[in-house]
């Protein structure tokens, strides 16, 4: 039984995209402006509140789904959307006030711990016949760490047009596809979750053209933290509902996480301030030394995320067919390949 008909799903995505495109015009005309800085990849002042347009468009599209399409169980998506909205609003404040990095991190930890208390990591499926049950306190701690890491990974990678916005849209629409393809619980448990994924994925897609290729608005921290919370929190929600393992989020964000973590390690080895903004990420160095085209870079990153997810999905299907659990092993191989590629590309850029 379909939670929503294909037409209803497409309608929600389209409505959210159109609303985001329209509301983006308000951000372009009257939003806060990002002034070019040495650490940035842009040369002209650019409005930076596109994320607020995404949040508003998502909320309106969700309301439409609840009132006009009779989506079952809309309340099941409230925790996820509320968590993401709070993260996004904190980003909007930071877009205007430029809050201290440590204060932002403290708020994120508190917010993520609250969400993790409702959606902790319950188990880790490692290999055939090897599943580790995670005690509740450790599950909350693990979920909090995942949320904070993923939030900041997407935020750090949001320095090139289209890269983060497109990745967020792809991830959220893939999540929606997983709900439709693998959801087996009663429809009352999943309708709101599906609605949130469709509306937010559509809204990010609607904002994308005004960021890439038009370069008229940034999503800002409001958009990157809103989207980051949805992507990381969505992985926990899907795991709780047994639609996907916790590894799905890792597959989708692996290209971003590898760049962020290896860059932090690279800076730590050189005794550089980890809380200071910089241009040391591999994608930033690529723009500086190899190819300044943001569009081509975004396509590469989207492709890597999609390929990584396809590998994870393939491992899932093999498990369904044969009973052999391969997802964790596949994720380890993906991460190893990305790490190898990171070091190899970085070496060529600095040669």
Automatic annotation (TrEMBL):
<feature type="transmembrane region" description="Helical">
    <location>
        <begin position="297"/>
        <end position="320"/>
    </location>
</feature>
<dbReference type="Pfam" id="PF00953">
    <property type="entry name" value="Glycos_transf_4"/>
</dbReference>
<keyword id="KW-1133">Transmembrane helix</keyword>
<dbReference type="GO" id="GO:0071555">
    <property type="term" value="P:cell wall organization"/>
</dbReference>
<feature type="binding site">
    <location>
        <position position="221"/>
    </location>
    <ligand>
        <name>Mg(2+)</name>
    </ligand>
</feature>
<feature type="transmembrane region" description="Helical">
    <location>
        <begin position="222"/>
        <end position="240"/>
    </location>
</feature>
<dbReference type="GO" id="GO:0005886">
    <property type="term" value="C:plasma membrane"/>
</dbReference>
<feature type="binding site">
    <location>
        <position position="155"/>
    </location>
    <ligand>
        <name>Mg(2+)</name>
    </ligand>
</feature>
<dbReference type="GO" id="GO:0016780">
    <property type="term" value="F:phosphotransferase activity, for other substituted phosphate groups"/>
</dbReference>
<protein>
    <submittedName>
        <fullName>Undecaprenyl-phosphate N-acetylglucosaminyl 1-phosphate transferase</fullName>
        <ecNumber>2.7.8.-</ecNumber>
    </submittedName>
</protein>
<dbReference type="GO" id="GO:0044038">
    <property type="term" value="P:cell wall macromolecule biosynthetic process"/>
</dbReference>
<feature type="transmembrane region" description="Helical">
    <location>
        <begin position="189"/>
        <end position="210"/>
    </location>
</feature>
<keyword id="KW-0479">Metal-binding</keyword>
<keyword id="KW-0460">Magnesium</keyword>
<feature type="transmembrane region" description="Helical">
    <location>
        <begin position="326"/>
        <end position="343"/>
    </location>
</feature>
<dbReference type="GO" id="GO:0009103">
    <property type="term" value="P:lipopolysaccharide biosynthetic process"/>
</dbReference>
<feature type="transmembrane region" description="Helical">
    <location>
        <begin position="246"/>
        <end position="266"/>
    </location>
</feature>
<keyword id="KW-0472">Membrane</keyword>
<keyword id="KW-0808">Transferase</keyword>
<feature type="transmembrane region" description="Helical">
    <location>
        <begin position="163"/>
        <end position="183"/>
    </location>
</feature>
<dbReference type="InterPro" id="IPR000715">
    <property type="entry name" value="Glycosyl_transferase_4"/>
</dbReference>
<keyword id="KW-0812">Transmembrane</keyword>
<dbReference type="GO" id="GO:0046872">
    <property type="term" value="F:metal ion binding"/>
</dbReference>
<feature type="transmembrane region" description="Helical">
    <location>
        <begin position="78"/>
        <end position="97"/>
    </location>
</feature>
<feature type="transmembrane region" description="Helical">
    <location>
        <begin position="48"/>
        <end position="66"/>
    </location>
</feature>
<feature type="transmembrane region" description="Helical">
    <location>
        <begin position="125"/>
        <end position="151"/>
    </location>
</feature>
<keyword id="KW-1003">Cell membrane</keyword>
């Amino acid at each position: 039984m379909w939670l929503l008909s294909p037409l209803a799903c497409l309608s929600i995505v389209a409505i959210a995209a159109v609303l985001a495109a329209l509301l983006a015009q308000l951000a372009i005309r009257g939003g806060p402006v990002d002034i070019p800085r040495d650490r940035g990849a842009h040369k002209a002042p650019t409005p930076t509140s596109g994320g607020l347009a995404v949040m508003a468009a998502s909320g309106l599209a969700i309301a439409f789904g609840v009132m006009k399409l009779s989506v079952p169980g809309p309340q099941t998506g409230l925790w996820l959307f509320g968590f993401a909205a709070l993260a996004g609003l904190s980003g909007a404040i930071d877009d205007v006030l430029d809050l201290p990095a440590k204060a932002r991190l403290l708020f994120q930890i508190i917010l993520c711990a609250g969400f993790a208390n409702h959606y902790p990591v319950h188990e880790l499926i490692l290999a055939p016949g090897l599943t580790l049950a995670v005690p509740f306190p450790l599950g909350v701690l693990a979920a909090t760490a995942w949320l904070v890491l993923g939030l900041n990974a997407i935020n750090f990678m949001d320095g090139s047009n289209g890269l983060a916005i497109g990745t967020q849209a792809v991830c959220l629409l893939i999540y929606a596809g997983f709900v439709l393809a693998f959801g087996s619980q009663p429809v009352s448990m999943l309708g709101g979750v599906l609605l949130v994924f469709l509306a937010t994925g559509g809204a990010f897609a609607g904002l994308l053209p005004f960021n890439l290729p038009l370069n008229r608005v940034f999503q800002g921290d409001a958009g990157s933290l809103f989207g980051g919370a949805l992507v990381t929190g969505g992985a926990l929600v899907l795991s709780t509902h047994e639609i996907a393992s916790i590894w799905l989020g890792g597959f989708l964000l692996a290209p971003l996480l590898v760049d962020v973590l290896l860059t932090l390690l690279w800076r730590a080895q050189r005794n550089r301030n980890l809380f200071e903004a910089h241009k040391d990420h591999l994608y930033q160095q690529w723009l500086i030394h190899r190819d300044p085209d943001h569009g081509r870079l975004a396509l590469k990153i989207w492709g890597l995320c999609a390929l990584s997810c396809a590998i994870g999905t393939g491992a899932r299907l093999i498990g369904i067919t044969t009973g052999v659990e391969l997802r964790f092993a596949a994720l380890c191989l993906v991460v190893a390949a990305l790490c190898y590629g990171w070091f190899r590309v970085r070496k060529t850029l600095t040669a």
